[in-house]
Amino acid sequence: MQNNNPIGIFDSGIGGTSIWQEIHHLLPGESTIYLADSKNAPYGQKSKEEIIALSEKNTEYLLNMNSKLIVVACNTATTNAIKELREKYDVPFIGIEPAIKPAALNSTTQTIGVLATRGTLSSDLFNKAVALHHQTKIIEQIGHGLVQLIENGDIDSPEMNELLQTYLTPMIEANIDYLVLGCSHYPYLIPQIKKILPAHIKIIDSGEAVARQTRNILQEKVGFSNVKVVKNVFYTNAAPKVLNDILNNSYEVLFKDF
Length: 258
Description:
The protein is built from eleven helices and ten strands. Helix 1 (about 15-25) crosses helix 10 (about 205-220) and helix 2 (about 50-65) crosses helix 3. Helices cover about 45% and strands about 15% of the residues. The chain starts with 6 loop residues before the first strand and ends with a strand. Strand 7 (about 180), helix 9 and strand 8 (about 200-205) form a beta-alpha-beta unit. The chain has about 260 residues and is α/β, with parallel strands linked by helices. The longest helix has 17 residues, at about 50-65. It is globular and about 50 Å long. Strands 4-3-1-2-9-10 form a six-stranded parallel sheet, with helices on both faces. It has a four-stranded parallel sheet with strand order 6-5-7-8, with helices on both faces.
């Protein structure tokens, strides 16, 4: 199968670019359209109804630009809205969920930590995943304030380090050996997190798994692209400089009030 239309990707802001990087690395021949809904970030503090409405708005924007599949590069949107998106739109959706399963299966202390938004931790999808691993102690922590600091470009700030110390110290004391990052923004915090965690604690996120699933769906249902010139375009409705900076000013970033 061949399909030269782009892959559509959306997130509540710039964090989903961590997922985009994994997709682009695995599928460099595919064009992509990325939506950073930064003016509505963070989604994790919103109601389920608000999250569904925002996810539908983003989906329709991407469909209007002929996206052949849509990656919901946001844990909160996936856990709260992907069921409704799949029921409403006739296009494949790929979601992102906290990587609880590999962490729980590989933990030797039978204790793992999950750092995520309130919207993810309170969702039915997340709690069903937790219930499947009842033999593992799961330390849940809402990352209050982290997404907003990342969206503001304050990744290396003293305030960020203070918040991370506050959130991670109880997990260390509880003897976790895996930390699951349950928000697509959080991989950008790995350098700071590594300074706080003991070396034996492994950090795990969902980026590679999402990229592999994207490849699978292209192969099985949608079709790969064979365009000679790949185009990767990024849209944001707030703070284009922050998105430019996170992409090292290497791609086209456009401001759109979507």
